[in-house]
Design a protein that fits this description.
There is one protein chain. This protein is an alpha+beta fold. The protein has three domains: about 140 residues, Probable tRNA modification gtpase trme, domain 1 (Gyrase A, domain 2, 2-Layer Sandwich), CATH 3.30.1360.120; about 110 residues, Alpha-Beta Plaits, CATH 3.30.70.1400; about 80 residues, Elongation Factor Tu (Ef-tu), domain 3, CATH 2.40.30. Helices cover about 20% and strands about 30% of the residues. It contains nine helices and 19 strands. The protein has a six-stranded mixed sheet with strand order 10-11-12-9-3-13, with helices on both faces. A six-stranded antiparallel beta barrel has the order 14-17-16-15-18-19. A hairpin with an 8-residue loop joins β11 and β12. α5 crosses α7. The chain is globular. Keywords: Aminotransferase, Transferase. The glycine cleavage system catalyzes the degradation of glycine. This is Aminomethyltransferase.
Length: about 400
């Protein structure tokens, strides 16, 4: 899951409760979704490598948190979102999408089932007000309460191969340490850290094992400090948005505003599997998405591996390769949505939206790198997979 913005704040960027902690650590800041967030603390390459090799800690408190409670909670979410939440067990989470009537993606999000009649919906930072508003509007006629708790909620992520050891070191007792070890991917449990109740989820956006910790915003600094102290023996370093972006790109995870937007349907973004047509509810966008599925996507999201040393960036056009066998000039067939050199793999990688006729793995295309064409190969996603 990711957190770009569609609605930029008109006022000065907001601060999370951890802003002072980031300043103490010498962070460089950037405006992101209306929030003043750490871009990096030192070397973004070192932060990236720490997550791949040890552990990194991220402030995600700019993300949204919307509670949905009531007798109709599951039925309502089945109408408001594209997934089927009636079959989601308590203690589990599901990646999903909220779309408009035309099937365009308004946001991608994670939904946790907290109890039979209670869910936590986590939208992206800049989209959180829009998602909260749409959920409230779509709740009309259902026995549910929709409450936007974004402003009062803090969120800290610990990601990397040593993340479990760090989280186990800070929870209250042996039973909770066992619960952390047993926690499945895309699941959550309740733990206690220094007397603080924490909703602990085994989710993330880096391609590594990792955890996300939901707490009251005002208690975020003490939890941050506790995790930093516990992580010192495990190679934990604070990480900013730059490393988060390079990590998610290697893992082939889409970013709202780059790969996803209201101009794309789930089928354009290889997310058709997230849409449930088996559920009985007539969810918003259902008819449009059924038509889109039947028609087939004319362009799809693919992974590109650079065959040279230069990287493609978002917005760079993609062309058919020049042919020595015909006089046909190269044609533009797509655009890069995200791209940069891969710190882990050692070559340029990119996500691109291509004409579906050129999306087969092994196809060679050319990217216009500011006036010079370089060859890229369509490859399977993700670029990087833990343990592979």
């Amino acid at each position: 899951m990711t957190e770009h913005t569609t609605e930029q704040a008109a006022a000065a960027p907001k601060h999370t409760a951890l802003h002072a902690e980031h300043e103490k650590l010498g962070a460089s800041f950037t405006d992101f979704g209306g929030w003043d967030m750490p871009l990096k603390y030192g070397s973004e390459l070192a932060e990236h490598r720490a997550v791949r090799e040890a552990a990194g800690i991220f402030d995600l408190s700019h993300m949204g948190e919307v509670w949905v409670s009531g007798a109709d909670a599951a039925k309502f979410l089945n109408t408001a979102l594209v997934g089927n939440f009636a079959v989601t067990a308590v203690g589990k989470a599901k990646y999903s999408l909220i779309v408009n009537a035309d099937g365009g993606i308004v946001d991608d999000l994670i939904v946790y089932r907290i109890a039979d009649e209670r869910f936590l919906v986590v939208p992206n930072a800049g989209n959180a007000p829009t998602v909260a508003r749409l959920l409230a509007e779509r709740a009309a006629g259902f026995d549910v309460e929709v409450r936007d708790a974004s402003a009062e909620t803090g969120l800290i992520a610990v990601q990397g191969p040593n993340s479990e050891a760090i989280v186990r070191a800070v929870v209250a007792d042996d039973a909770q340490r066992a619960a952390v070890a047993d926690l499945a991917y895309y699941a959550w449990t309740a733990v206690t850290v220094d007397g603080l109740d924490v909703l602990l989820a085994r989710t993330g956006y880096t391609g590594e094992d990792g955890f996300e910790l939901y707490i009251p915003a005002e208690r975020s600094p003490e939890l941050w400090q506790t995790l930093i102290a516990a992580g010192s023996a495990h190679g934990l370093v604070p990480c900013g948005l730059a490393a988060r972006d390079s990590l998610r790109l290697e893992a082939g995870m889409p970013l709202y505003g780059n790969e996803l937007g209201v101009d794309t349907t789930p089928f354009d973004a290889n997310l058709g599997g997230v849409v449930s047509f088996k559920k009985e509810e007539d969810f918003v966008g259902r008819s449009a998405l059924q038509a889109a599925k039947a028609a087939g996507a004319s362009s799809v999201l693919v992974g590109l591996k650079g065959l040279g040393r230069r990287a493609g960036r978002g917005g760079y056009p993609v062309f058919t390769p020049a042919s020595e066998l015909t006089d046909e000039a190269p044609r533009e067939i797509g655009v890069i949505t995200s791209g940069q050199p891969s710190p882990t793999l050692g070559y340029p990688i990119a996500l691109a939206r291509l004409d579906a006729r050129y999306a087969e793995v092994g196809t060679t295309v050319e990217v216009d790198l500011r006036g010079k064409r370089e060859s890229f190969e369509v490859v399977a996603l993700p670029f990087y997979k833990r343990g592979a």
